[in-house]
Design goal:
Elements lengths: L11 H12 L20 H8 L13 H9 L5 H6 L2 H8 L2 H9 L7 H6 L7 E11 L1 H22 L1 E12 L8 E11 L2 H15 L6 E8 L2 E3 L11 H21 L16 H4 L2 E2 L2 E2 L3
Antiparallel strand pairs: 1-4, 2-3, 2-4, 2-5, 6-7
Amino acid sequence: MSQDRTYICIDLKSFYASVECRERGLDPLMTNLVVADHIGILEEESYKRTLWSHRPLTDFWRVGSGIARRLESAGIYTMEDIAKADEDMLYRMFGIDAELLIDHAWGRETTTIADIKAYRPKENSISSSQVLGCDYDFEGGRLIAKEMADLLCLKLVEKGLVTDPISLYVGYSRRLQKKSAHGTITMPVTTSSAKKIMGYTQELFEQIVDRNAPIHRVTLAFNRVVDEMYQQYDLFTDPAEIEREHKIQKTMLEIKEKFGKNAILKGMNLEKGATTKERNRQIGGHKSGE
């Protein structure tokens, strides 16, 4: 018995898009396909020529009506105005969010191909990043890196994980146009010990960071995290000491959970320039009202 069949003729580009859908396990008839003939390229100079004078600012990504009104109150109406405005004023107005606004105004994308290649998926890495409210000197930047390492260690304990490689990325003041410093150090053990991890973080910081350049961004990542059942010790590690520290970390987590993140702090969190206490009051980088 013959069977009726319906054939649909489509252009070659759409055909290849449909094949790609099937290879990805998608239904071509239910999936929105985009077949492009041209690719647009926008560089910093062409961005300035075409968009610096564009109005209104709300047409730009991440610039809402509230931000636009605050900018207008300071006599700022275009991206060119933002680019040429006093940066300290912008930071006073928007805090760390001014960093994104300034990058946007100059048409800059700070994420590099190297950053993308260094990316690790969330299921096997954890990281923390800060855009500082002002430029920090070498000592201040090192303090920030240690604070970040300490908080990430608590996350490891909370999730029952350990790690061995530590990656650090340090961006300098934008006024210097200086290439960021980055490096990785692998510990001889897998651990969640704040004492050990902070020590190696400090060592890495001192190896890669220019002591004379002001620091504006810090990112710390534990690139390979595994279940704590894989925790390792070396000949110089006292397992009993590590276990005592682990119990202290768990107790700290319980106190923070019950009484708030700032219920228990370390001495370094009270030093000049420390940010942990303030960041503990924030949600998504903004003040939580605590």
